[in-house]
Design brief:
2 copies of one chain form a homodimer. Helix content of chain A is 38%, strand content 21%. The longest helix of chain A has 19 residues. The mean pLDDT of chain A is 93. In chain A, the strands form 2 sheets. In chain A, strands 7-9-6-10-8-11-12 form a 7-stranded mixed sheet, with helices on both faces. Chain A is α+β, with helices and mostly antiparallel strands and 349 residues long. In chain A, strand 3, helix 4 and strand 4 form a beta-alpha-beta unit. The first copy, chain A, is built from 12 helices and 12 strands. Chain A has 2 domains: 127 residues, 60s Ribosomal Protein L30, Chain: A, CATH 3.30.1330; 183 residues, PurM-like C-terminal domain (Phosphoribosyl-aminoimidazole Synthetase, Chain A, domain 2), CATH 3.90.650.10.
């Protein structure tokens, strides 16, 4: 809609937004404008799953400019990542946005671009949604997916002795934070690459699907609130503890960022924002799982073992990791940048 | 969780809420605690639909006490009503709650009771969700449903000459408002009954299913923003106008409320909050559709005709009805009671 990017949503009104912003973008989607969105026609027996998550303020927005594109991308990633942890194939996303009337059409389009681009990267799309005005921006989505019956991955089902694999490449988001706050320095091209990856985290749908289809995962969970919280919860769901090695392979530029900032790779690897999966795999399946994932282009590393002893250890010491928790005084959602980086990575303020 | 109803959610923290409130209630739900909720196993070919809506402050909360039960019930109704308009069978609801840390466990339990009770009344349930803390309460849900392939109802598909049916009994919510604000008086038992129905609106799932299964509806839409907005939008979706008779059958006590308040039944029938469906039906199918709906216990009345002429008429005059619209200056979402009733019903303040 040319010439309208500076208009406010409150200038257009609900019907104007529908006609001038949403219809040009989504009008060809089957069921556009209907009370219920059309997700898919399912013709083979399927286990259906759904997940819903809201989007916090992206850390990259705290580090850089307030571009709603990043929130849109993150909103889709967060929800698709939960489907990945189930080994599900996405059928579509429904979105639910609360936005101030003063939001410009241009800002709104950036939000929609971020969600749509991320969905397209994962081979899915927004099928419908809801929009209302409110004092504060709130972005929520629900992803629906399907699994082959019997293959759905859950948090439970692991046994003591199962190995823990981490899929994906950890550390990009907080390496970008170290770079953006001057705690490390890299040549511009490497720095730009890290920034791009921090802005465009990918849900591990391919990893989840490969593991589910081949019966190689006994339990899985995505790293949404930090590696420590994930491993702890995965252990608790199975009445187990975990021993992680504390040794992590980081992509090479990230290892240099760590060294400059005086951090171990473990410090960077146990943050969040990269949307890896932690997967429990029988010891004898580790080789096959690793091979199959790498053949699909998925980064994977073994990080530890589930143990009959409760409690978490890293190397030879107890693991007292960091975790985001909601409804608590020390939640980091919406924290200030000046305290966030030091708190998350235990580096000087 | 006895003895904890006065605790605040911020006292329990995310993990405490999970263990002490959510697990006792939902722990037996398959997939409880997993990243993705389990919706259903689909074994026959199905068209899947999804809808998402947030819940405004219920009018009954403005009229009475601030009980989150009503918001919970309404949240489920709003979403299930969209499935009804598609003629879909609900597979389950995922919920997304933002609540202040100061919310008490008792208040939270009332919210969950309202959602769960409404779902149970409609033969479905909450399968999963997300919870986070925030400055203001925001309640969102997504309902997923399935349709027999080819039977899904949409807003489009109607023709000029199709008759408009309204399912459900209109007027309960705003009759309750007239009673609560002293604009009408009824014996206590009738008044209580109207109040109960205003607090517990039912989505028209049975109506949608009967019409879809028998191919009797050419288009359908639920009355979420008032009858005027619904008929106007249904007409626009088909490039048509509509002529409504302006004559409505109200349940008998509501007719007395109207008379006392100096209103026509039409004034009360064109409000919202009762979650009826407006359905376009071929003229020759009106008798059969009406008969089949009544056999299922669904109230239904013919209210008008879709017309080739654009524009809306009520009786012999243009219909200038009332409509809620978001992102506009005159939206009634969150309005004050002192102005809401006069504005919606055009009665003296």
């Amino acid at each position: 809609m040319s010439g309208t990017t500076e208009l406010h949503l409150g200038d257009l009104g609900e019907r104007g937004i529908q006609e001038h912003v949403l219809r040009p973008r989504y009008g060809d989607t089957e069921g556009f404008g209907d009370d219920s969105a059309f997700l898919a026609t399912v013709t083979t027996p399927s286990e259906l799953v759904a997940t819903t998550d809201s989007c916090p303020t992206p850390v990259v927005n705290l580090l850089g400019e307030p571009d709603l594109y990043h929130a849109g991308w993150l909103l889709a990633t967060i929800n698709l990542s939960d489907l990945a942890a189930a080994g599900a194939e996405p059928l579509g996303l429904v979105v639910n946005y609360t936005l101030p009337k003063a939001t410009t059409v241009g800002e709104f389009e950036r939000l929609l671009d971020g969600v749509d681009d991320c969905c397209a990267e994962h081979g899915t799309k927004v099928v419908g949604g809801d929009l209302r005005d409110g004092a504060a921006t709130q972005l929520t989505a629900t992803a629906v997916g399907s699994c082959v019956p019997g293959s759905r991955l859950r948090r439970s089902g692991a046994r003591a002795g199962d190995r823990l694999l981490l899929t994906g490449s950890p550390g990009y988001l907080w390496a970008a934070a170290l770079l953006a706050t001057g705690r490390a320095t890299l040549p511009a091209s490497e720095r730009d690459d890290i920034w791009q990856r921090a802005c465009r985290p990918m849900a591990q749908l391919k990893a989840g699907k490969v593991l589910a289809a081949n019966g190689l995962a006994r339990a899985a969970m995505d790293v949404s609130d930090g590696l420590f919280a994930t491993v702890r919860t995965l252990g608790e769901a199975n009445g187990l503890g975990a021993a992680v090695t504390g040794e992590f392979d980081l992509d090479e530029p990230l290892a240099r960022v760590c060294a400059q900032a005086g951090l171990r790779p473990f410090d960077l690897a146990q943050t969040w924002g990269d949307w890896g999966l932690v997967v429990a795999v029988r010891a004898e399946d580790v080789g096959l799982a690793t091979k199959m994932l790498r053949e699909e282009g998925v980064a994977v590393q073994e990080i530890g073992t589930l143990t009959a002893d409760a409690g978490l250890t890293a190397g030879t010491a107890p693991w007292r990791g960091i975790a985001q928790e909601r409804f608590s005084a020390n939640s980091w959602h919406g924290g200030e940048l000046s305290t966030l980086v030091p708190e998350v990575l235990s580096v000087p303020a």
